[in-house]
């Protein structure tokens, strides 16, 4: 990603870093007063790197109204930004591009009753932010989040999702929510095991699990994660008769490649 010109970024402070597993971490940074974003968007974060900079995109995990900015990073072997994150500690300086971007915004759907959020790996991050916005709970009758990871130890947000039941802005709506964890390389008693998201859609397993009937009038799909998953899920949904949402041509599907 090209370096942002100097005037286009601010220098922020790392407030905390939490290493959940050797490759999964969350961290928070200071939020400039002027920094605005919509839940579902991503920031560009950077570091000075020798003579230049390194910049990468990270979906914002925090709510729009949060005082700080939180992120979730999957550390990639031999990845340049991952190496910076692996060394990062509280008090370090991190660069924040002044503009948040992205179109994975549930408010873009003008209609629909049931919102199905489909994520793999770090693709859960924008949905964690979206789920802290009361407007989305008022807007939809039912909300479901599907998070696919390879192994159960990678499901690090179970407690955070459960805590929405006591979130002051969300608790009254929490009964509308379903969380379906999926472990593709492991069978457990409490996750859907062994099948990837496109297969779960093709075989109608997700609808059965939720007790919903997916249909173009009511169901809206938001998809984020592994680009191959996004591509395969889009094709599956198109084959099932759904269409991409465009502002001038409303449909049922919104997508974002999570890397
Ligand atoms: C719109 C957008 C939002 C993003 N949001 C996040 C986020 O919230 N959290 C996050 O960890 N990353 C996110 N990424 C990816 C992130 O920008 C970096 O690519 C990633 O942190 C790895 O950086 P790197 O320099 O270590 O390796 P890179 O050289 O950037 O990547 C090396 C390879 O690692 C794989 N890879 C990259 N990112 C991931 C990932 N997240 N999960 C699995 N495999 C990956 C790809 O195959 C890639 O080619 C996002 C990317 C985009 C485009
Ligand atoms: N997780 C691992 O065991 C593993 C192993 C080797 C390397 N890596 C590397 O580690 C890094 C992070 O990986 P990650 O596991 O967080 O992210 P990831 O590889 O994107 O996997 C996250 C989830 O997405 C699923 N997925 C991958 N491709 C898909 C597709 N085309 N359609 C539907 N679902 C799909 C995975 O299923 P599957 O489990 O079926 O792939 C898994 O459930 C990446 O660089 C990856 O290449 C991971």
TrEMBL record:
Catalytic activity: 2 reduced [2Fe-2S]-[ferredoxin] + NADP(+) + H(+) = 2 oxidized [2Fe-2S]-[ferredoxin] + NADPH
InterPro entries: FAD-bd_FR_type, FNR_bac, FNR_nucleotide-bd, FNR_type-1, OxRdtase_FAD/NAD-bd, Riboflavin_synthase-like_b-brl
Biological source species: Neisseria lisongii
Gene3D superfamilies with a match to the protein in the record: Nucleotide-binding domain of ferredoxin-NADP reductase (FNR) module, Translation factors
SUPFAM superfamilies: Ferredoxin reductase-like, C-terminal NADP-linked domain (SSF52343), Riboflavin synthase domain-like (SSF63380)
Keywords per UniProt: Nucleotide-binding
Class of enzymatic activity (EC top level): oxidoreductase
Cross-referenced Pfam families: NAD_binding_1
PANTHER family, alphabetized: OXIDOREDUCTASE FAD/NAD(P)-BINDING DOMAIN PROTEIN, OXIDOREDUCTASE FAD_NAD(P)-BINDING DOMAIN PROTEIN
Protein name per its UniProtKB record: ferredoxin--NADP(+) reductase
Similarity section: Belongs to the ferredoxin--NADP reductase type 1 family.
FAD-binding FR-type domain location: 7-106
EC number(s) per entry: 1.18.1.2
């Amino acid at each position: 990603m090209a370096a942002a010109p100097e005037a286009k970024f601010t220098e922020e402070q790392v407030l905390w870093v939490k290493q959940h597993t050797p490759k999964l971490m969350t961290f928070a940074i200071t939020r400039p007063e002027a920094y605005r974003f919509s839940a579902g968007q991503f920031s560009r974060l950077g570091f000075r790197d020798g003579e230049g900079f390194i910049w990468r995109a990270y979906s914002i995990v925090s709510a729009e109204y949060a005082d700080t900015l939180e992120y979730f990073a999957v550390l990639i072997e031999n990845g340049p930004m991952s190496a910076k994150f692996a060394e990062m500690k509280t008090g370090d300086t991190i660069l924040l591009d002044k503009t948040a971007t992205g179109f994975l915004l549930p408010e873009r759907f003008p209609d629909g009753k049931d919102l199905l959020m489909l994520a793999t790996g770090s693709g859960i991050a924008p949905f964690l932010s979206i789920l802290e916005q009361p407007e989305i709970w008022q807007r939809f009758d039912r909300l479901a989040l599907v998070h696919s990871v390879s192994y159960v130890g990678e499901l690090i947000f179970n407690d955070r999702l459960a805590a929405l039941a006591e979130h002051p802005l969300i608790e009254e709506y929490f009964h509308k929510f379903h969380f379906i964890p999926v472990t593709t390389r492991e069978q457990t008693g409490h996750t859907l095991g062994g099948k990837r998201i496109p297969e779960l859609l093709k075989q109608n397993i997700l609808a059965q699990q939720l007790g919903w009937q997916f249909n173009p009038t009511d169901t809206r799909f938001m998809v984020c994660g592994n680009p191959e998953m996004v591509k395969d899920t889009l094709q599956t949904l198109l084959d099932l008769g759904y269409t991409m949402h465009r502002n001038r041509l409303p449909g049922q599907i919104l997508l974002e490649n999570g890397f």
